[in-house]
Amino acid sequence: MKLPIILQEFLKAQELFDSISFANCFSEYASVFDEGKIYTGKDEIKQWNEKSNEQYKTLFEVMDFSVKDNMTILKINISGSFDGSPVVLNFYFRIENNLINALAIVE
Q: Per-residue pLDDT for 1 more than 90?
């Protein structure tokens, strides 16, 4: 599966639990929607990822990849130290200028 480079970088940063590299995959004013909350800007995204990594040590396994209506969709099997692990979630990315501008994580 040939993913866009920015998503390869996103996945690699998560694999290494590198919140700085993770946040650098996003544009300056990007937003992330996860578990009913919205995180806006690289600082908030970095903090959200740091907290998640510390609490859950989440690992991502990409199951499927598609593009629809300017959205890149990854179906990801997520495992970690959280109730219900593992779980399969859909990651909806909007990519602009080779950076993630928006991400929504939903079931």
A: no
